[in-house]
Write a structure and sequence with these properties.
Length: about 375
């Protein structure tokens, strides 16, 4: 079958090729770039001379796949399921996917009403272990909810564990989320997430490279991760063992120049070992949505300072805190000694000692001054003088 000369031949050609070429096929991407999608389809559909660099065995396999390709039927099935096909050069195409070069998707099947291009402009990937711990699920959901509340789109893979927790966290906060599948978007996978993926399609977007009805494979899961990495401004890994697929996403993000982040876990947890390895490299440590937004957001979107609880002595003026810190812990001291240790004048030290007595920090002992019992722990264990 030839689709050359049809009114929408570029789109039809790319739909045709999603049945023939596997996601991330760089040789196929190079053919499309050098010859155009229409010419590649013509050679495949008509059994023409092999394209450059392809072996005879592989060319035979591609021709067998081409015989079964029915792009118009795929588009009709997709429309029936509320799915559209978005390809490079169209208004909805996210330009950042072009960073993948010849491994760029031929196009994306999109289920949901929102604009993929607009949502991708302010998106973050949250990925991690399928068999995650309660801690991992909690952190993924909390991070996603926090990002959603700040107007960020949460992107993940729709899988069990961290992925599912991230999607639910964003949805629960009334925010936007995108599931990137390794199969046809009309047939949710895993089956146990059918209801979740349907909800994502209603409130967000479900996208994938495979045509309607196509099934996932191990290699397709791995290749799907490059789309997650390229689509977003940065990738957060919540929990991941040393051989976790989510590390593939993180490394792809690094190669593409995107931000790579990790949430630390217990030092004894094998499920955090891969994250910790990332953190020993170029990944940034994050603990909440504010940390993530500080990295991936616009200039000026800074995370709040991390501080311990405010103690009563923190509210004192710096010079008064310095006098307080100058009192020895177990005995009384004369004003001249206190002034010398506080590096201030004796009259100033005395005035501040009276202030501290009114606040209950010190008491007089003859000609000297001594810390009250209540103040001893504050002075010994609190932060040093400013």
């Amino acid at each position: 079958m030839s689709v050359v000369g049809e009114p929408d031949d570029e789109l039809l050609a790319r739909v045709f090729l999603t049945r023939v070429l596997e996601p991330g096929d760089e040789a196929g991407g190079r053919w499309v770039r050098e010859f155009g999608a229409g010419e590649v389809v013509r050679r495949l559909a008509e059994g023409g001379r092999p394209l450059p660099g392809v072996s005879g065995k592989r060319w035979t396999g591609l021709l067998a796949r081409a015989v079964a390709a029915r792009p118009r039927e795929d588009l009709a099935v997709a429309r029936e399921a509320g799915v559209r096909f978005v390809c490079p050069g169209r208004p909805e195409w996210p330009g950042q996917l072009d960073d993948l070069g010849d491994a760029r998707p031929l196009g994306l099947w999109v289920r949901g009403r929102a604009s993929l291009r607009m949502w991708a402009l302010k998106s973050v990937a949250v990925v991690g272990a399928r068999a995650c711990t309660e801690y991992g699920a909690h952190m993924a959901a909390t991070l996603a909810a926090g990002l959603a509340e700040q107007g960020w789109v949460v992107v993940s893979g729709g899988a069990y564990g961290v992925d599912g927790a991230a999607h639910r966290g964003a949805l629960g906060a009334g925010g936007a989320t995108v599931a990137v599948l390794a199969c046809g978007v009309d047939r949710p996978y895993p089956r146990g997430h059918t209801q979740l993926i349907s909800r994502i399609a209603e409130q967000g977007l479900v996208i994938g490279e495979l045509p309607p009805g196509d099934h996932p494979t191990q290699s397709r899961f791995i290749l799907r991760n490059r789309v997650i990495a390229a689509l977003t401004r940065g990738t957060v890994v919540v929990e991941a063992a040393h051989r976790s697929g989510s590390l593939v996403t993180a490394r792809a993000a690094q190669r593409l120049g995107r931000h790579t982040m990790g949430v630390p876990g217990p030092a004894t947890s094998g499920l955090s070992a891969g994250v910790h390895e990332l953190l020993r490299g170029e990944a940034a440590l994050v603990t909440d949505a504010a940390d993530v937004v500080e990295l991936v957001g616009d200039i000026g979107q800074l995370a709040p300072d991390r501080r311990g609880p405010v103690l009563p002595r923190d509210l004192l003026e710096p010079a008064t805190r310095q006098v307080l810190a100058a009192l020895p812990g177990g005995r009384a001291a004369r004003p001249d000694e206190i002034a010398r240790r506080a590096q201030t004048a004796q009259d100033d030290a005395i005035a501040r000692l009276y202030e501290l007595r009114a606040l209950g920090y010190v008491e007089r002992h003859g000609d000297g001054w001594k810390l009250t019992r209540q103040a001893v722990m504050s002075v010994r264990d609190g932060p040093g003088p400013c």
